[in-house]
Write a structure and sequence with these properties.
It is a single chain. This protein is an all-alpha fold. It has one domain (3-81). It is 59% helix and 0% strand. The protein contains three helices and no strands. Helix 1 (3-21) packs antiparallel against helix 2. The longest helix has 24 residues, at 48-71. The two termini are 15 Å apart.
């Protein structure tokens, strides 16, 4: 795998993992007679940075695993799809 292949693989894996993690820990804003500037469906604490870090860690692990498989000729994505 070239560096470009690794980067593209990482990004393609990262996006779905990030979107899977977004609803985890979701707690909507409750209406406690307070006037808020946000819609009620907005989360109280989005924890976006935490989800970015977790998605990056999972994606990095999968990318390294796939690179190792290809490096030792155990599995190749290019050969599987060509």
């Amino acid at each position: 795998m070239s560096l470009i292949d690794i980067l593209i693989f990482f990004l393609v894996i990262w996006w779905p993992i990030f979107f899977i993690l977004l609803p985890i820990g979701y707690e909507p804003i409750t209406k406690d007679n307070e006037k808020t500037e946000f819609v009620r469906s907005a989360p109280k604490k989005p924890m976006i940075l935490r989800k970015l870090i977790i998605a990056s860690g999972i994606s990095l692990f999968i990318t390294i695993f796939m690179w190792i498989l290809e490096y030792y000729n155990l599995f190749s994505l290019k050969e599987a799809f060509l």
